[in-house]
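Lab notebook, bench 4. The sequencing result for the construct came back, and we need a structural model before the next group meeting so we can plan mutations. Quick request posted to the team channel:

Model the 3D structure of this chain.
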Amino acid sequence: MNPLDNIRVVLVHTSNAGNIGAAARAMKNMGLSHLYLVSPHRYPADEATWRAANAADLLDRAVVVETFDEAVAGCALAVGSSARERSIPWPLLDARRACAQIYTEAQRHGVALVFGREDRGLTNEELQKCQLHINIPSNPEYSSLNLAMAVQVIAYELRMLQVAGTLPADAMTGWDLDYANADAVERLFTHFEQALSAMGFLKADAPKQTMTRLRRLFQRTRLDTMEVNILRGILTSAQYWVRKAGGGKPDGDGS
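Done. Here's the predicted structure in token form:
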């Protein structure tokens, strides 16, 4: 069973029909498919269909009801979106933590995600019918989120929970070559020091933290075996031209 199939998105008294279409598009992008509309001001509407793009099928299946109670009927958990604190504290979580609870509970029973009016959100009475409040911690200097944007953020968090088991935890998973081992990396650093000294870049009588900073640079990067070989090849070539220019004897290459 797909937990996302147990989640419905409820839009309460939406005034802009385009926002309904945009919310439907956000839902379909992230795998949500059940849309409930509580007394929309204007629906159906061409603007909703246009903004939905290829998610018009969600609009065709949308359930239009008159009251909040009808929209959440049959759900064991109703989660109300809230942008502000209330005089009486209520269970409140940010979007990521709330979605973890939503996704877990959706494996057992129906969940309603409720979004309020564009201009003033959900009423206190509506929020008091929700077991949990969800907040998207936006920039306090400009905290207003478009309705469809709010739906998108929460739908994305739910989608990430669904695909967590299929996405690699390490961005380098499937890399084409093995990481260079510690010995190979140490030989690279030795080679760097020899080459930079030969070039006159490192001064024995004016020690700096150059090698330490180079170590930090390359240790931040997980060098693979080929990358180490390429860098050492560059250093070897640089040493050759330094020797040729100075007529000196070959320097060590850090091997």
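The longest strand covers residues 7-12.
Will bring this to the meeting.
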